[in-house]
Amino acid sequence: MVSKIKEELRLDHKIIGDMVDRGSTVLDVGCGAGDLLEYLVTNKDVKGSGVEISEDAIYSCVEKGLSVSHGDIDTGLKEYPDHMFDYVIFNQTMQQVQRPKEAILEALRIGKKVIIGFPNFCHAKARIQIFFGGHVPVTASLPYQWYDTPNLHFLSIRDFRSFCRAQRISIEKEIYLSDRGEVKFLPNVFALNAIMQIKK
Amino acid sequence: MKDDIKGYVTTKYFDLPEGEPFVLDSGVDLHGLRIAYETYGVLDEKKNNAVLICHALSMDAHAAGYHNGETKPGWWDDMIGPGKAFDTDHYFVICSNVIGGCKGSSGPSSINPKTGKPYALGFPIVTIRDMVNAQKRLIDFLGIKKLVTVCGGSMGGMQALQWAISYPDAVASCIPIATTHKHTAQNIAFDEVGRQAIMADPAWNGGDYYNGDHPSRGLAVARMVGHITYMSNHSMNEKFGRMLKKEKLGYEFTTEFEVEGYLRYRGDSFVKRFDANSYLYITKALDYFDLTQEGSLFDMFKKVKCRFLVIAFSSDWLYPPAESQEIVKALKMNGRDVTYCEISSDYGHDAFLVEFKEETKLVKHFVNRTFKDMEDKNGQ
Predict the structure, then answer these.
(1) Which class is A2-121+154-199 in CATH?
(2) Residue B344 in 3-state DSSP?
(3) I need a surface site. Which of A154, A187, B212, B260 has the fewest CB within 10 A?
(4) CA of A150 vs chain B CAs: smallest distance (Å)
């Protein structure tokens, strides 16, 4: 059973797990069915909780023994006191919130550190599809057509870095991923996803 | 749900030992307090597996299983029993009738030992906190130091919240469902209409009616008003719409619409099982309920220690989800462990009795998790 779970483990979950200190407190924003939280509780002994909009996903989280709050990311973070969590995680959810800037700043208020995982819009394949194909890109990390995408915001790794500079947010850790694993060379071109740990 | 060799459940009674005071919020000492209760499942040797269910306005201690000769089970049988949300194969489930009620616990229809007659309006006003204090005496009598959870819907949810605040060390978790932390002006207004309907019935006779006709018309109207607040516009339209009992309009003041017939039926069946004075006392307790009387909700929750599962229903306009969210927010600001779910339902306030499948998905795992944490803690 354990080896099966390990096999199925998503690489991003493992990377986030490596970033998080053992025994810390974690809020997973847009936690879905709670897979990442469950991984962190099991492997890193975190005290975890989540915020999630889908009722069905709430049932899955509770079944896993997780504490989760049914609500909207854009308003749900205001309800927590300053620095309540060691980490606030947005894994593949930040591009779907109405106001990412406010959400990130709220996360930095309620969490000592924030971990953000997002798809890189400026991956080589996306660039080629726009330049030669003349259409909005559809890639492994951005698999949706324009008319049914849940993503409201599209950004590159470079965009996120300049946002952090402008907001005086420091980037403590950054890991870039392609479908073959970690990317070290020209991540803004070759990475499908970025995972960054930031702090204010 | 069976608890004895005959396969039926029975209501038990706990009388506070003579001479033991029970001082109410009003300052009155209620002599000879009696609490009617039922239990399902087996209390383990360490007395660690007890769960308390708190009932709503019109219910009683009979939450699950069948009484001898009954064809209908207790009011929350969908949730309590072997393999159910409150799994009686693992937990010892307790439900007691609230004081002020009319189903075996001390209330206005009980005999006043001083006069040998029913108390009627001589019964002291009770509050939600008084109800909880009475339940605590029962729990102490049963030798239980800490409940795995205290759970209830509507007025039961208020009792659950009051438990977490009044006895933070005696509860490991709290499940308030379809409830609020205080009665609003609208809630009080509806209750007052019900009370006035009872009091306007000549048979009420200042509450002194136990030797004659009961104020059944008044109580039935009170119940009809209450019932409207338990349903949603949508569920009423689905169930009745503008359907008529006959084929066409009769141009007369008879019960013509299906919804009228339903409400009358509800009212008439209620008077057979409920005491009008108890309706006055319990709605009064509801109206007095306000956790922010002595400070903000945030301050009140500073003292709580347990984990919470707060459940609301999307179409509940009596205690709407926004009121549960206030509770959740105040708990979160205190750093408490809280899970919140708004179950999508068209049944209005009544959903807490109807949507048991969804409630089970949440309650079962939450209770198991709480129990596991308790065991881990005790094992350390």
Answers:
(1) alpha beta
(2) coil
(3) B212
(4) 22
* A65–chain B nearest CA distance, Å: 6
What CA–CA distance (Å, rounded) separates A87 from A187? 24
Q: Which candidate in B299, B329, B331, B332 is best for mutational testing of the A interface (most A CBs within 10 A)?
A: B332
The residue among B304 and A179 whose pLDDT is bigger is B304
A4 pLDDT exceeds 80? Answer: no
Which residue is listed with tokens 């309590």? Answer: B80
**Average pLDDT of the residues in B341-358:** 97
Q: How high is the ipTM of this complex?
A: 0.91
Q: Name the average pLDDT for chain B.
A: 95
Domains of chain B, earliest start first: 12-182+291-379 (3.40.50.1820), 187-286 (1.10.1740.110)
Task: Please tell me if residue B307 touches chain A, with a CB cutoff of 8 Å.
Answer: yes
- Contact with chain B for residue A63, Cβ under 8 A: yes
Provide mean pLDDT across the span A141-156: 87
Q: Taking 60 as the threshold, does the pLDDT of residue A40 lie above it?
A: yes
The b/e string for B35-73 (b: 16+ C-beta within 10 A; e otherwise) is bbbbbbbebeeeebbbbbbbbbbbbbbbbbbbeeeeeeb
The DSSP annotation for B238-280 comes to: HHTTT-BSSSS--SSSS--BHHHHHHHHHHHHHHTT--HHHHH
Q: How confident is the model at residue A150 (pLDDT cuts 50, 70, 90)?
A: confident
Closest CA to B312 of B345, B335, B279: B345
- Min Cα separation A83/chain B (Å): 11
Choose among A62, A66, A69: nearest Cβ to B328: A69
Considering only CB atoms, A55 lies closest to which of B328, B329, B343, namely: B343
Closest Cβ–Cβ partner in A49, A59, A65 for B369: A65
Cβ–Cβ gap A62/B341 under 8 Å: yes
Nearest to A81 by CA among A109, A119, A115: A109
State the pLDDT at residue A2.
41
Give the residue numbers of B marked as catalytic. 154, 316, 349
| Whether the predicted pLDDT of B2 surpasses 70 | no
Contact B261, B255 (CB under 8 A): yes
Interface membership of A58 toward B (CB under 8 Å):
yes
pTM given for the model: 0.94
Are B359 and B79 within 8 A, CB to CB? yes
Q: Do A65 and B365 touch (CB under 8 A)?
A: yes
With 90 as the cut, is the pLDDT of residue A151 above it?
A: no
Which of these ranges, A123-137, B178-192, B196-210, B298-312, has the smallest mean pLDDT?
A123-137
